[in-house]
Specification:
Elements lengths: L3 E8 L3 H18 L4 E5 L4 H7 L5 H9 L2 E6 L14 H11 L4 E7 L12 H4 L3 E7 L7 E9 L2 E7 L4 H16 L4 E6 L5 H17 L4 E6 H10 L6 E4 L1 H14 L7 E8 L5 E7 L16 H13 L4 H16 L18 H14 L2
Parallel strand pairs: 1-2, 1-3, 3-12, 5-10, 8-9, 8-10
Antiparallel strand pairs: 4-5, 4-11, 6-7, 11-12
Helix pairs in contact: 1-10, 1-12, 6-7, 8-9, 10-11, 11-12
Bound molecules: 3-isopropylmalic acid (IPM) and magnesium ion.
The site of 3-isopropylmalic acid has 4 residues, from α4.
Length: 368
C-alpha cells in the first residue's frame, strides 16, 4: 500500500477519547499487517476555535485536501453554544465537506446480533438488519442561497433554500447504484416529489440514471415521510437508500437508532477520485461530541473504529482487513464486552473506553 496518509482530527468532547482507541488499531495494523500509515493530527471544531479563533484553520483545510483520508472524531459542545454562527464548531465540519466536495455520505445501519435486544423495535424486526443510507452531503438546503435572517414587514424572516442541480443528483445516484451492485442490488430513492420541485427533479434524474446505466439494479421511489414510517415498520425491506442532505440527516439518525446504539455507527463521506485513484474521503462516527460523558472513560469507541474500517475498505482497498476488524468487534460484543451505552436493563459491569479498545486489539491478535 503506497503512501497511505491519514489526517486525524479528534475534535471536541469524546472525540479525542475515541480517537485514542483508533490509534491503537492503526498501530496494530502497522505492527501486524504491514499496513503503514503516515499519520498527522490537527484541530477542528471548538478545539480549533480555542486555539485559532476559527473552527477550521486554512492550513488544516489545505492538509485535508492533500492526504488520502481524513478521520474525524466529533465537533461541538455547550461551551460554544453562544458563538457567532460563522465560527460555530459545526462550521468546521461543513467546510471540510464542502471544500473537499464530499458529495456521497455513506451511513450504514447494521444491527450486531449481540445487540439486537437493545433496539427499541422488536428483535425479529431488526436482527440481521443491514441498510446503507447514501446521503447527498454538499448541496440542498444546507448550502442553498439565498439564506439568512432578514427584516420584512416589521418582523424577522429566516430563509434557507433547497436547491439541486441535475449533475448533483446524477453523481450521488451513481454512487448509490454502484454500492447496491456490491450488496443487495436494490436502491430506494426518497424525496418529497409530491410537494417540492427539487423532489420532482430528484426522482426524474435518479430514474434516468437507472434506466441508462443501472437497469440491472432494482429501483423504487418513496416519499421521505413514508420512508421514515417504513424504516420503523419493516426496515429489512431496504438495501441502499439514496436521499438528499436534510432528509438523509434525519433518516440516518432514525435508522441508527434501529440498531440499538448511536455509539456503534460509522460513516464515510466520499468525493471524486484524486490523481492516485483514491476518492477524496473523510470518515467519522455518526454520533456527536457527547459533552455529558466527556472525560469519564464512558464513550463507546466502536463507531470511530468502524469508521477506520470503512477507510480501509473505501480508501485503501483493504476490504479483507476491514472485515477482520469488523469481525473482531462482533467477537468482543458476542463475548459480552459493553461500554455503558450498551448496558441492557439487566445491568452488569460496563467497561471503559480504553478497555474496549484493548479488547478489540486482543481480538485482532487472536485473528492472526
Ligand atoms: C451529521 C450532523 C451534522 C449535520 C451537524 C453536526 C452539522 O448532524 O453529520 O449528521 O447536520 O450534517
Ligand atoms: Mg445528523
Amino acid at each position: 500500500m503506497s503512501n497511505a496518509s491519514l489526517l486525524i482530527l479528534p475534535g471536541d468532547g469524546i472525540g479525542p477519547e475515541v480517537m485514542t482507541e483508533v490509534r491503537k488499531i492503526i498501530d496494530w495494523y502497522g505492527a501486524n499487517r504491514d499496513l503503514q500509515f503516515d499519520v498527522s493530527e490537527d484541530l477542528v471544531g471548538g478545539a480549533a476555535y480555542d486555539t485559532h479563533g476559527t473552527p477550521l484553520h486554512d492550513d488544516t483545510m489545505a492538509k485535508a485536501q492533500e492526504v488520502d483520508a481524513v478521520l474525524l472524531g466529533a465537533v461541538g459542545g455547550p461551551k460554544y453554544d453562544n458563538l457567532d454562527f460563522s465560527v460555530k464548531p459545526e462550521r468546521g465540519l461543513l467546510r471540510l465537506r464542502k471544500e473537499m466536495d464530499l458529495f456521497a455520505n455513506l451511513r450504514p445501519a447494521q444491527c450486531f446480533d449481540a445487540l439486537a435486544d437493545f433496539s427499541s423495535l422488536k428483535k425479529e424486526v431488526v436482527s440481521g438488519l443491514d441498510i446503507m443510507i447514501v446521503r447527498e452531503l454538499t448541496s440542498g438546503i444546507y448550502f442553498g442561497e439565498p439564506r439568512g435572517i432578514i427584516e420584512e414587514g416589521g418582523e424577522r424572516v429566516g430563509i434557507n433554500t433547497q436547491r439541486y442541480t441535475e449533475s448533483e443528483i446524477d453523481r450521488v445516484a451513481r454512487s448509490a447504484f454502484e454500492l447496491a451492485r456490491r450488496r443487495g442490488n436494490k436502491v430506494c430513492s426518497m424525496e418529497k416529489a409530491n410537494v417540492m420541485e427539487s423532489g420532482i427533479l430528484w426522482r426524474e434524474v435518479v430514474q434516468k440514471v437507472h434506466d441508462a446505466d443501472y437497469a440491472d439494479v432494482e429501483l423504487s421511489h418513496m416519499y421521505a415521510d413514508a420512508g421514515a414510517m417504513q424504516l420503523c415498520r419493516y426496515p429489512k425491506q431496504f438495501d441502499v437508500i439514496v436521499t438528499d442532505n436534510l432528509f438523509g440527516d434525519i433518516l440516518s439518525d432514525a435508522a441508527a437508532m434501529l440498531t440499538g446504539s448511536l455509539g456503534m455507527l460509522p460513516s464515510a463521506s466520499l468525493g471524486a477520485p484524486m490523481a492516485n485513484g483514491r476518492p477524496k474521503a473523510l470518515y467519522e462516527p455518526v454520533h456527536g461530541s457527547a459533552p455529558d460523558i466527556t472525560g469519564q472513560g464512558k464513550a463507546n469507541p466502536i463507531a470511530c473504529i468502524l469508521s477506520f474500517a470503512m477507510a480501509l475498505r473505501y480508501s485503501f482497498d483493504q476490504g479483507d482487513e476491514a472485515a477482520r476488524l469488523e469481525t473482531a468487534i462482533e467477537t468482543v460484543l458476542a463475548n459480552g464486552a459493553r461500554t455503558p451505552d450498551l448496558m441492557g436493563p439487566d445491568g452488569g459491569t460496563p467497561m471503559s473506553t480504553s478497555d474496549m479498545g484493548d479488547a478489540i486489539v486482543a481480538a485482532l491478535d487472536a485473528s492472526l
